């Protein structure tokens, strides 16, 4: 029997919850921060790249499997006056990930990369092969981290793995042994990999393995938090967003809405984000072992706060890459 959920933060005081008090001062004091985003040519990935480049002064490296589509997407952002560089990458290929990291390092002039976002994913709308879903969503993030962590800034670096509510929902249906494994701060990558292989073989998964892949991705974030304690590693759940490859149908939220909740994990004050934690579409910490409706109640949506944020970082760096 698991203990009562200790993660959900209820705010009953006046004004905004403390987590939404984003600072106006730059979070990355060494000048303009840089970010590499996989899956950046469409959907939430593209919306995130565009927002970080235009609204927050990031130097954006847009990782895309389709080089031509990536070039067109990056050009659209640059045409609006921001820095955005297309980097071709296939997250299922170790060599391609290594090559992408070398390219980014060269373009940075061998300065460290500040942030990494693992957004590339496939789901049941585009793929019915559970093994491929796990390989892209879970092992793809691992390959990218293996390639990029050596070139990242250990002082201010952040890794955001884009998860899903279905990950926590999957853990909720697991036996206690599996739940303890997937939510333990001491979990090891070998344990996560072995569990994913066993669950696929035993068909202990739902929706062609999507929930399994995102549950294991959140567990991988716990591995990163333990192994790289000076950096900040979190999982961001952007919610269901319509009009994307993952969810081609209509939905109340857009890719831009989902991107803003991911951007929150890159922009919020470090001390207000816990290493290894999962954050929902509303920017509040969510449990790893139970699904929750993060868009109900009276909490202000994270994108409203981000819209109101006066970002001195964007002001100071817009001209640098304009």
TrEMBL record:
Protein name per Swiss-Prot or TrEMBL: Short chain dehydrogenase
Keyword Flavoprotein: no
Native source organism of the sequence: Aureococcus anophagefferens
InterPro entries per the UniProt record, alphabetical: NAD(P)-bd_dom_sf, SDR_fam
Family classification: Belongs to the short-chain dehydrogenases/reductases (SDR) family.
Pfam families hit by this protein: adh_short
Assigned keywords, A-Z: NADP, Oxidoreductase
């Amino acid at each position: 029997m698991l203990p009562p959920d200790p993660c959900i933060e209820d705010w009953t005081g006046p004004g905004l919850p403390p987590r939404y008090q984003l600072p106006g001062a730059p979070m990355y004091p060494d000048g303009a921060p840089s970010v590499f985003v996989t899956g950046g040519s469409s959907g939430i990935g593209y919306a995130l790249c565009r927002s970080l480049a235009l609204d927050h002064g990031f130097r954006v490296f847009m990782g895309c499997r389709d080089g031509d589509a990536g070039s067109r997407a990056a050009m659209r952002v640059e045409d609006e006056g921001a820095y955005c560089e297309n980097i071709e990458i296939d997250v299922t290929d170790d060599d391609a990930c290594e090559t992408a990291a070398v390219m980014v390092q060269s373009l940075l002039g061998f300065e460290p990369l500040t942030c990494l976002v693992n957004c590339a994913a496939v789901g049941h709308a585009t793929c019915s092969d559970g093994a491929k879903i796990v390989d892209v969503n879970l092992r793809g993030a691992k390959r990218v981290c293996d390639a990029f962590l050596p070139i990242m800034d250990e002082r201010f670096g952040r890794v955001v793995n884009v998860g899903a509510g279905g990950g926590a929902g999957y853990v909720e249906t697991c036996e206690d042994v599996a739940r303890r494994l997937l939510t333990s701060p001491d979990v090891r990558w070998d344990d996560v990999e072995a569990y994913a292989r066993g669950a696929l073989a035993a068909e202990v998964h739902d929706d062609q393995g999507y929930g399994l892949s995102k549950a294991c991705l959140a567990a991988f974030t716990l591995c990163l938090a333990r192994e790289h304690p000076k950096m900040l590693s979190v999982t961001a759940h952007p919610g269901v967003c319509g009009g994307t490859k993952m969810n081609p149908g209509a939905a109340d939220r857009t890719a831009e809405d989902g991107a803003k909740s991911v951007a929150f994990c890159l922009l919020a004050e470090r001390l207000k984000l816990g290493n290894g934690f999962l954050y929902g579409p509303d920017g509040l910490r969510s449990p790893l072992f139970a699904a929750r409706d993060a868009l109900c109640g009276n909490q202000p949506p994270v994108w409203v706060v981000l819209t109101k944020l006066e970002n001195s970082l964007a002001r100071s760096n817009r001209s640098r890459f304009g």
